[in-house]
Design brief:
Blueprint (H helix, E strand, L loop, with lengths): L1 H22 L1 H11 L2 H8 L16 H15 L4 H12 L15 H35 L5 H12 L1
Helix pairs in contact: 1-2, 1-4, 3-4
Length: 160
């Protein structure tokens, strides 16, 4: 059964490559935009196992084209998006995901930035509180009591 799927995917990939080369890139893009099913969305969301750092839709390799065609064939055959995603993740692993899963070790990708942000905020709050406390303490403790003449001048100015 799996051998038959690969054969169908390879045949469909070859036909798509031949059609794409004959019709030109603009015609292929127009045809793709016209049929925008979930298979196109998957290709834009999943990372390519053949081109690191690119989505499956952006990868120019022939293997990626074959995989995109296989996904389209699965949609045409009536399979659900969830089934196809599960099979792709089983076959290629988590490298297809643009962001790590929020469980297990992948949770650290979400927890570490939040923890660093909170620790930085606590450090800034501690620093500012200490600086304002020191500034208040220095203002009151640094100067000797005002002379009676200076106090009188200040009081006069305040009354005006």
């Amino acid at each position: 059964m799996r051998h038959a799927r690969r054969l169908v995917a390879a045949w469909a990939g070859a036909a798509a490559l031949a059609f794409g080369a004959a019709a030109g890139p603009h015609a292929a893009a127009a045809a793709a935009a016209a049929e925008q099913g979930w298979s196109y969305a998957i290709a834009r969301e999943l990372m390519s196992p053949y081109c690191p750092g690119r989505t499956l839709a952006d990868c120019p390799s022939p293997q990626a084209q074959t995989l995109r065609v296989w996904i389209h064939v699965q949609e045409a055959a009536g399979r659900t998006r969830e089934d196809v995603e599960a099979e792709l993740l089983e076959r290629y692993g988590d490298q297809l995901l643009a962001a790590p899963r929020a469980r297990g070790f992948g949770l650290t990708a979400y927890a570490v930035p939040i923890g660093v942000f909170l620790a930085g905020g606590a450090l800034v709050a501690f620093f500012l509180r200490r600086q304002t406390r020191l500034a208040r303490g220095e203002a009151s403790a640094s100067g000797a009591p005002l002379s009676p003449e200076l106090e009188r001048l200040v009081d006069e100015e305040l009354e005006r």
